[in-house]
Amino acid sequence: GQSLEQPSEVTAVEGAIVQINCTYQTSGFYGLSWYQQHDGGAPTFLSYNALDGLEETGRFSSFLSRSDSYGYLLLQELQMKDSASYFCAVGSSNTGKLIFGQGTTLQVKP
Amino acid sequence: ETGVTQTPRHLVMGMTNKKSLKCEQHLGHNAMYWYKQSAKKPLELMFVYNFKEQTENNSVPSRFSPECPNSSHLFLHLHTLQPEDSALYLCASSQEGGGATGELFFGEGSRLTVL
């Protein structure tokens, strides 16, 4: 089967750095994605890692280790607007599906 | 309009009602999806359509009936729902299989409450 685990809640202060981890189990693996969802809004795509290593996009970076079935999303220079839910998602090469984790609620405090 | 648009944004219905959710994408994508989002649960994949053909029915009860008349439009017909079906229903689209690219474009969802 397929499953993903990520922390349910994370709290950090403005200007800090926070890392949201995701471990996964899947039959066949395309890649690991990250999505952001503000309250009442649509999930929006942040990043995608198909290969091992770090991908950087502005203040956000995403890391993947295929051998460890592990990835993380790193948010730097946190801003209040980064308060949202963050979902990791795994693409299965066996099923073609994109399966989501439960989501991590990030609260940024002043 | 751009992106993925869902209507209605909010819907309240009784268990004996029949209603439909509508999704329209203006991105020229070939695949469309319905996901269910309940509190404290992962997004659950319900249906997948590729080029108007249903390729996935993720063991969804028959009281949910999808329809995809063309690559731009997707409907979810609802009838005799249960209170536990109350959730946010999200529509998404992608250029090709979402599992392969990891990138889906979501609408803002239809918040359904079943009384």
Fill in the keyword field for this structure.
heterodimer; A: 110 residues; mainly beta; 6-stranded mixed sheet; 5-stranded antiparallel sheet; B: 115 residues; 7-stranded mixed sheet; 4-stranded antiparallel sheet; 56% strand; globular
Task: Give a verbal description of the structure.
The complex is a heterodimer of chains A (110) and B (115). Chain A has 110 residues and is an all-beta fold. Chain A has strands at residues 3-5, 9-13, 18-25, 31-37, 44-49, 53-57, 60-65, 70-75, 84-91, 98-100, 104-109. In chain A, the strands form two sheets. In chain A, strands 2, 4, 5, 9, 10 and 11 form a six-stranded mixed beta sheet that branches. In chain A, strands 1-3-8-7-6 form a five-stranded antiparallel beta sheet, with no helix packed on it. With 115 residues, chain B is mainly β. Chain B is 3% helix and 56% strand. In chain B, strands 2, 4, 5, 6, 9, 10 and 11 form a seven-stranded mixed beta sheet that branches. A four-stranded antiparallel beta sheet of chain B has the order 1-3-8-7, with no helix packed on it. Chain B is globular, with a radius of gyration of 13 Å. Chain A binds chain B through residues 4, 8, 30-33, 40-45, 48, 50, 87, 89, 91-93, 95-103, and chain B through 4, 35, 40-43, 45, 48, 55-56, 90, 97-109.
Oligomer: heterodimer
Overall pLDDT metric of chain B: 90
User: Averaging pLDDT over every residue of chain A, what do you get?
Assistant: 94
In whole angstroms, the N-to-C terminal distance of chain A is: 41 Å
| String of helices and strands of chain A | EEEEEEEEEEE
Q: Number of DSSP strands of chain B? A: 11
Give, in order, the helices and strands of chain B: EEEEEEEEEHEE
Q: Summarize the largest interface: chains and residue counts.
A: A-B, 28 and 24 residues
Write a brief structural summary:
With 110 residues, chain A is mostly beta strands. Chain A is 0% helix and 57% strand.
